[in-house]
Amino acid sequence: MHTKKPLSGVRGIARTSIISLIALTMGAAAVGFLLLPTAQADFRAQGIWDSICRAAGLPSKWGNPAAEDRAKPMVSTNVVLLPAMSKQARPASIGRGATLALNCTMCHGALGMSRSDAPNLAGQYPEVVIKQLMDYQSGKRENALMAALARNLTEQNIVDLAAYYASLPKARTAPTSYDETLPALVRVGDPMRNIAPCISCHGGVDQKLGAPWLEGMPKQYLVQELGAFKSGKRRNDGQQQMRNVARAMTVEEIEDVSNFYARKALPGH
């Protein structure tokens, strides 16, 4: 004869299974919604709801933002980059810019080649100079000296300065190509950290509208600006391109990339 298991035994097994399932679910939720989100370096959640939304890829706030959020400045630059900004200027504009540039020689050099830690402007793309001067003027990029110098410039003054510096020969640099041995972040970036290769935007091989020419720049200037993007102190990159890249870079990587671009200048330049 077959003996039936007592009903209480079956209920005990079912109860144990349910309790185990609940414990497993709670453990998985704790790992997915709490442990993993807090492991990210930029984690800023204020509670369990923020953690759940982060893990699920959802916004933590719906509808109208709070008053304090609306008060935060959302626009990092007022400048709209247009292809026309990069066109070759007329000689008259270059001449006017040369006169205006006399106020810039102390930091940027007589012919746009800095002997200090200020950026080289010789041969810089005109739209880059236009954008940065307009950002200094509006306060979107902060620097006490540059803000004071840019404050009284007219729109035509800015265009003329950009035309003059673009007309000057760049520093002679060693040729850049994908074939040479480059730092990994310069050549291929790091897709796993969402870091695009520097070479895809910053000249040498390719150049995106508004991305500055970096080859031969003073090393300390590059270290300073990458550090400012990393910390969020500099915020005038329109779509946060540079902040997103620099935020993921280590101090050592910033040093390596800056060294590479600074050393591109040939000896004596």
TrEMBL record:
This protein's name: Cytochrome c4
UniProt keyword terms in alphabetical order: Electron transport, Heme, Iron, Membrane, Metal-binding, Transmembrane, Transmembrane helix, Transport
Originating organism: Massilia polaris
TM helices/strands, residue ranges: 12-36
InterPro entries for this protein: Cyt_c-like_dom (IPR009056), Cyt_c-like_dom_sf (IPR036909), Cytochrome_c_Oxidase_Subunit (IPR050597), TAT_signal (IPR006311)
Keyword Heme appears in the UniProt entry: yes
Keyword Metal-binding attached: yes
GO-annotated molecular function: electron transfer activity; heme binding; metal ion binding
Cytochrome c domain sequence ranges: 92-169, 184-265
Source organism, top-level taxon: Bacteria
